[in-house]
Write a structure and sequence with these properties.
Length: 204
């Protein structure tokens, strides 16, 4: 069960945003990721709880940020309920999309589990609902993912396979790379892996 800490920062000006303390593991239903977020000064700022089924679909999502809450799942596309800080207003949303995304590294792992790309796969288009900080506002985004290469690297615990993905935002054409080993993001825009206590899980 990998556990560790990511640093999240603004990908444009590198302003520190948060630390995300996480643990994740494959399980009977597929894969689960839970994390707690703290500000750069150490104050609690939110949490992520995401469970995928064996096909990589989100069967349970719960996000907290700035006292806002989102609960969602893959249902008729993706469906969610967003609740305001007072708990009096709840807004339901539904979009014919494949999955969710957001600032957490969990969503990058989730997208790769959903797409199951190989280096010979053509670039694959995916529609996602992004929940944007600080109030978890929903926004539909279209991306194209391709797996550029998979390379094995020697480690003290045996070979570690690192996958390099290219992600294209279809509305702007902006491209970036994402490096993933198992169920851990090694590098991505706005994300740095600061600490990893146990090796990444290997998906079968």
């Amino acid at each position: 069960m990998p556990r560790g800490r990511y640093s999240l920062h603004d990908p444009h000006d590198h302003t520190p945003l948060a630390h995300e303390h996480f643990q994740c593991a494959p399980g009977p239903s597929g894969w689960r990721y839970v994390s707690q977020l703290t500000t750069p000064t150490g104050d609690h700022s939110g949490s992520v709880d995401l469970t995928l089924d064996e096909l990589g679909r989100p069967i349970r999502l719960e996000l907290h940020a700035s006292s806002w809450q989102v609960r969602g799942a893959a249902l008729d596309g993706v469906t969610w309920v967003r609740t305001d800080p007072t708990g009096t207003e709840a807004t339901e949303g539904n979009v014919p999309a494949h999955a969710f995304t957001g600032t957490s590294p969990a969503f990058l792992i989730a997208t790769t589990r959903l797409l199951r790309l190989t280096p010979s796969s053509a670039a694959t288009r995916v529609r996602l609902v992004a929940f944007t900080d600080p109030v978890l506002a929903p926004r539909t985004v279209d991306q194209s993912w391709s797996l550029l290469k998979s390379e094995a690297h020697a480690t003290d615990n045996g070979p570690l396979t690192v996958d390099e993905y290219q992600v294209t935002a279809l509305d702007t054409g902006e491209q970036h790379s994402v490096h993933i080993a198992g169920d851990v993001v090694l590098a991505a825009p706005g994300i740095e892996l600061d600490d990893l206590e146990t090796p990444p899980s290997t998906f079968t």
